[in-house]
Design goal:
By secondary structure, this protein is of the alpha+beta class. It contains three helices and seven strands. The chain has one domain: 2-Layer Sandwich (STM4215-like).
Length: 160
């Protein structure tokens, strides 16, 4: 559900970030990510790409004692980006962070039959170091920005 929501809304969020901050200081604009995957599916991808890593789910049975799922899940959502210079890469990575935060933070996602409801709360963000990679065509700089999120998950009839 989260991956589909990101795919459906990231382009509008990138446009909103563009509108708020003005045109890029470089000729290169942000591209809408084409690859969206869950870890460990990430073997081959085209940057920019979105990676979702589920970390932990707490079903909170001791506190809830219910016969439905009322859980807190921790996930990480990353955007992997590449650019031809460090400056462009840093600038673009900031904008991807801003757009992804707009898409995810405090959003309530509901399944089509309303049996599953998730509320996403972005708790923090972190950047990877900048890697310089050499491919056959050019030098490429690569960086990731990762948003750590708590997902409050409720689902009918999930328990015993």
């Amino acid at each position: 559900m989260i991956r589909n929501y990101i795919q459906a809304n990231i382009q509008a969020a990138l446009l909103e970030v563009y509108t708020e901050n003005g045109p890029p200081i470089h000729a290169e604009s942000l591209r809408v990510p084409q690859d969206y995957f869950f870890y460990p599916e990430a073997e081959v991808y085209n940057a920019p790409a979105v990676l979702i890593i589920p970390n932990l789910i707490d079903f909170r049975k001791d506190q809830m004692g219910a016969n439905f799922v009322d859980a807190k899940q921790q996930i990480q959502v990353g955007v992997i980006n590449e650019a031809r210079t460090r400056e462009i890469l840093t600038y673009q990575t900031w904008r991807y962070l801003s757009a992804m935060h707009k898409v995810l933070d405090q959003n309530r996602l509901t399944s089509s039959d309303a049996s599953v409801v998730c509320t996403v709360v972005v708790t923090r963000a972190s950047y990877s170091g900048i890697d310089k990679r050499q491919n056959m065509q050019d030098n490429v700089f690569r960086q990731e920005v990762v948003l750590s999120c708590d997902v409050f998950h409720w689902e009918q009839g999930g328990g015993n």
